[in-house]
Design goal:
By secondary structure, the chain is an alpha/beta fold. Helix content is 44%, strand content 22%. The longest helix has 23 residues, at 3-25. The chain is elongated and about 150 Å long.
Length: 596
């Protein structure tokens, strides 16, 4: 062997030894194996990592060692047809029960096909990396769990967490206070029903954007250390909340609330239409809050309901007395649900008399059906104590359906019992909830068929403010009118319509509100208003009813002004069905045959 050949041979030995040293000291596990998994070479790190998986303590075959954690590996290698390349990369192998205390919990395996006969596998401890990924995933999931999917605003959970941290700040840590504003969209359900859920969702997104834009500066978190910041969140379907930190006085928070209401009152531009969506707001100042975030949010919600009760589109500051009123309303709501199920409700009827010729009175012209509640403990509950609760709780629809069915059954019974002496018309009030039901006309038609009533014997009444404001209501009224029933505009003079727009409403009767009638004999102004209403109604072929007549003088004036009918305590209070029949018998007169 020549000197050069000896030198080259020595270099090869040195390179091989260097390679062996590298493999021996490498911080990753290296395994060389045949295509059948037979191990040709493995370094100490691979032995250390794989030994917990070796059932019999043997590391002779890679596939056998990994059978429990990677049973697919043998098939992957056998099906890899390329002469070389990556068989698998970064395959995670949880060790499970095979893991040793303090040792690796998860391995990462990559397998490379070197040539037609050899595989090279790398094995690493992936425990730390897995833990970091789990932490990142947990943070991402936590963020998602605190973010509203539609508006991308913080959600109720995030708001409560932030509020609780603020309430837990030691007294005197900051020299300022904070406020919670709770906002709810007025009439959002009607908007959603009229325009569809997709439009409703886009509207909510715009409301959220406008709230955040009105805050200075907008933020998703409060700087607790600095005692300042503003947070806007979506807490429910059409509910939002705003936290204002760093407020010197409650009046400062009220000014921000007023700015928000002004910004939100502007129309929202949606594809093909502009929609106005006003919001009602409740405000709780930090000094008036307890120690729990949920209670503070509840109190803000209570104040928001007070804002809606006052007409909506305003901010009301929470007071402790509101909580007591809310508790009473909650009790009434719970009892009312039982009342609907236990038949505690009943209907009374107030006569509507006709002003017949020659000064006579037609006592059988009609009746108005009114609901009453006989509570097992409280006795008779006045309607003023439960009607608004029914409206706010969503029970008004069921209540209205009960009155419609019960009064129509009673009316049909009177016809059978009294014949021509029975009332010729029965009037039933409709709520907004009922008018929002698409199947209302079909329900009314079914009730008429069930009891054997003629459509023209039923008069459905809707308040002026409701009929004038809502296009959907007007469409429903036209559908009802097509059934042949009569329609009346109740409380005329107190709502939003006017004499000039009366012809736009599909009504047969205008009921002049008692606030005008009660001053008919003492105020020339009110007398002129009644006279104008009667003349316009007559020109449109409509009847008029004067409500709330309590004295002979009031009755005389409305008769002189040619009102067709009258209603009030002068003639009769609302009566149960049996008492009504007695009243009709006692007041029967020749004029009872006059036209309604």
């Amino acid at each position: 062997m020549t000197h050069d050949e000896i030198a080259q041979h020595a270099d090869k030995i040195d390179a091989y030894e260097a390679l062996v040293q590298f493999l021996y000291r490498a911080p990753i596990g290296l395994v060389q194996a045949g295509l059948d998994g037979t191990v040709d070479m493995l370094n100490p790190m691979s032995s250390s990592l794989l030994m917990p998986l070796a059932r019999d303590g043997s590391l002779d075959n890679l596939f056998t060692v990994l059978q429990d954690v990677a049973p697919q590996l043998r098939e992957l290698a056998a099906s890899f047809a390329e002469p070389s390349g990556v068989v698998c990369e970064g395959l995670r192998l949880p060790l499970g029960d095979a893991a040793t205390p303090g040792g690796p919990q998860v391995l990462s395996l990559s397998v490379l096909k070197l040539d037609g006969t050899r595989l090279m596998a790398t094995v690493t401890d992936a425990t730390a990396e897995m833990l970091r990924e789990q932490e990142r995933l947990a943070r991402r999931l936590k963020s998602q769990a605190r973010t509203d999917a539609l508006t991308r605003m913080p959600n109720r959970e995030a708001l409560l967490e932030q509020l609780q941290q603020m309430l837990a700040r030691p007294a005197g840590e900051t020299s300022s206070g904070f406020a919670l504003l709770f906002l709810n969209c007025d009439r959002f359900r009607q908007i959603n029903d009229a325009h569809g859920q997709a439009v409703g969702d886009r509207l909510l997104v715009q409301v959220g954007e406008r709230i955040r834009a009105a805050l200075r500066p907008p933020s998703d978190r409060i700087d607790l250390a600095a005692g300042s910041g503003q947070l806007a969140a979506r807490t429910g379907a059409d509910e939002f909340a705003v936290v204002l930190d760093g407020m010197r006085r409650r009046e400062d928070a009220e000014r921000v609330a007023a700015r928000l209401l002004d910004a939100l009152a502007k129309p929202h531009q949606l594809p093909g239409q502009d929609i106005t969506c006003r919001l009602s707001m409740g405000l709780v100042w930090s000094d008036d809050a307890g120690g729990l975030a949920g209670e503070m949010l509840r109190d803000a919600s209570i104040a928001m309901v007070e804002a809606k009760r006052a007409g909506g589109a305003r901010c009301v500051v929470f007071e402790t007395a509101m909580r007591e009123r809310a508790a009473r309303r909650a009790d009434i709501e719970a009892d009312l649900r039982l009342a609907l199920a236990d038949d505690q409700l009943f209907v009374v009827y107030q006569p509507v008399v006709g002003f017949a010729p020659a000064g006579t009175v037609d006592h059988a012209a009609g009746v108005e059906a009114l609901v009453r509640w006989r509570h097992p403990v409280r006795g008779i509950v006045p309607p003023i104590d439960f009607i608004q609760v029914a409206e706010e709780s969503g029970l008004i629809g069921a209540l209205g359906d009960f009155v419609l069915r019960r009064s129509c059954r009673d009316f049909a019974a009177w016809q059978r019992e009294l014949g021509p002496g029975a009332p010729r018309l029965i009037a039933v009030n409709l709520s907004r909830a009922q008018l929002g039901q698409a199947d209302l006309p079909a329900t009314v038609a079914a009730v008429l068929r069930e009891v054997g009533m003629q459509p023209q014997q039923l008069q459905l009444e809707v308040t002026e403010s409701l009929a004038a404001q809502d296009q959907q209501v007007q469409e429903r009224l036209h559908e009802l009118k097509a059934l042949g029933i009569r329609l009346a505009l109740d409380d005329f003079g107190t709502g939003y319509s006017s004499l000039s727009s009366l012809h736009l409403l599909p009504v047969d009767t205008v009921k002049i509100d008692r606030s005008f009638v009660c001053q008919a004999d003492t105020s020339n102004h009110h007398r002129v208003l009644i006279e104008a209403t009667v003349k316009v109604a007559q020109s449109l072929g409509m009847n008029t009813v004067a409500e709330g007549i309590e004295t002979e003088a009031q009755a005389r004036v409305v008769r002189e002004l040619h009102c067709a009918k009258g209603q009030g305590y002068l003639f009769s209070r609302p009566l149960p069905s049996g008492d009504l029949l007695d009243w009709l018998a006692a007041t029967a007169a020749p004029s009872s045959a006059a036209a309604a």
